[in-house]
Amino acid sequence: MLRLALRNVFRNKRRSFLTGLSIAVAVMIAVYLWSLVSGILDDMFDNMVRLNNGHVRVLNKNYVKRERMMPLGENIPDYRAISQAAQDAPNVTLAVGRIKFGILLENQDKSKPVFANGIVPETESRISHLDQKIVEGRLIQAGEAEMNIGVNLARDLDLKVGDTLTVLTQTAYGSVAALNLKIVGIFSFGVQSIDKSTVYIPLDKTQQLLDLDNRVTEIFVFIREMNRSRPAAREIQAILDRDFPGQYLARAWQDEGIIYFYMTWARYAYAFLYFLVLFLSSFTILNTMFMSVLERTHEIGMMKALGMKDRQVMWVIVLEALLIGGIASVIGAAWGAGIAYYLATVGIDFTKTFDQMGRINLPISYVYRAIFSWGIISFGLGMGILFSALAAVPPALRAARLEPTEALRE
Amino acid sequence: MALVKMENAVKNYKVGKVEVPALRGITLSIEKGDFAAIAGPSGSGKTTMLNLFGCLDKPTGGKVYIEEHDIITLKPDQLADVRNQHIGFIFQSFNLIPVLTAFENVEFPLILLKKHGPGTRRKKVLEMLAAVGIADLANRLPGEMSGGQQQRVAIARALVKQPDYVLADEPTANIDTKTGHEILELMRSMNEKLGTTFIFSTHDPKVMEMARRLITVRDGLVESDVRR
Lengths: 410, 228
Ligand SMILES: Nc1ncnc2c1ncn2[C@@H]1O[C@H](COP(=O)(O)OP(=O)(O)O)[C@@H](O)[C@H]1O
Ligand SMILES: [Mg+2]
Description:
heterodimer, A: 410 residues, alpha+beta, B: alpha/beta, 4-stranded antiparallel β-sheet, 7 helices
């Protein structure tokens, strides 16, 4: 039977080749696009978590309601106690506070509103790896009136290491405050939203500037395994509810509305595209097998007359489609794996594109890298074969239902 | 003993809303060892009769018995089994599988039969190809053979599983007279040597002459049935 199916594949070489080609191309696209999309999404989540969230974030309940406005008044007075309690929770590796606020940066006639992060320089290396991202100068030090700014921001405002600027902001109590800060280092995360509009200032100086004493607006908690964040958040919440009933919220990164939204949306959109490509290409198999069955009406009638059963007839047709689809899927998966490997090692540079597009409020890196995963490759291969087999079912049923007397009529 | 028999078999075809009678009550039994021709003009019902003998179709009235089974009661898979195990077919236009060699075409029904291993199959196929006189063409594809040679392959294919009887619908209609004569000679020698029962249809008087039993049909009825 296999021999028969194989020979039938080569009966119309051109048609089988074109059919196979379309399946191969579809599988290739499916494999490399998924590798790339996974790479981009993973990178995006990693950036989001490291730069905006931590694994679990502790907030004042009232802060959550107006997070966009960064309400400094809704802060965490019990910072010391909470970070200590969180540190003592199982699996927690780090719990450290920070303050996110808005400032106006001015240099000569140019000015720009940017996000400022009050951070603890010593622990920041374990959060955003800021220390490794400094391309010029050095990391800020606690207690000093210093700041680190992003490369794009430095370029936009003509700022250099060594420059001292007056920054303007509003304190927690609504009064205007100003502080002279020296630029001691310039960083590059390779992430649009950060490099263009973020500065880092030591937490203690920030607290001074904003009249916040020992308070922070958020606490980033890191745990041993990122995907165990939800149970960890529940444990911390329990501690918070016990010690400070009704005041604070501990939220895992998966439950941050925006991350979750982008994650699901991107995955669904891509899954749809993935199956659409396979679905469309499987029509070539459907069409080819229908033509093949039609051309072979006589032959199929004869085989049934010789005692071939309906099931066996179906199997011959499906096997033929499986051979075309199987070989094509292997080739397509190999192509896709090749492209994915290239994209994983070299990456695609979007620097120019992003600069032209202007500001995007997503932590997307300038260089996309695909993920090279055997799982993605073998799934693509399997789907190619599955869709080929499924597409052969209608023509195979048609063949099986042929009446030998009708099929044999001269 | 009757291998296959019809009792008042009726077959009507529906063409749109009209019923076209093809067989109008045929009673006939084929005995072991028969070399029978069904003769009659075009449209007289020969093919329809062979289809019923071949379990390819069921009668609309009356009975057809094969090995004492009433074929009306058999399911499609059972009919396929009966065809596979008991009946050989030779078609007017040979109907070989074009992508398989002569050898593989003859082997095909044995594979469906699932009774023999590859070694036995090979031996049987080669013997049969030799018996029909084309042992040297075993590896040729149908497209590389003449009509007469293809029909010999078809005969080998019909006989290789040693069926109870072989049905041939106008086996010589697509080949020239001389080759047709040879083909019929071959069938008759097989009938004599192996005792295989043959039922074939024809409207060629020369072919009718070679039959040892001549069944004449007209308008769906048996007109005469003579043994010689
Ligand atoms: N599938 C069919 N549908 C309708 N009419 C048919 C069909 N097959 C045969 N007939 C009719 O039945 C009659 C007998 O046909 P057939 O058995 O093929 O005759 P023969 O083989 O002797 O030429 C003819 O009138 C033919 O038109
Ligand atoms: Mg006919």
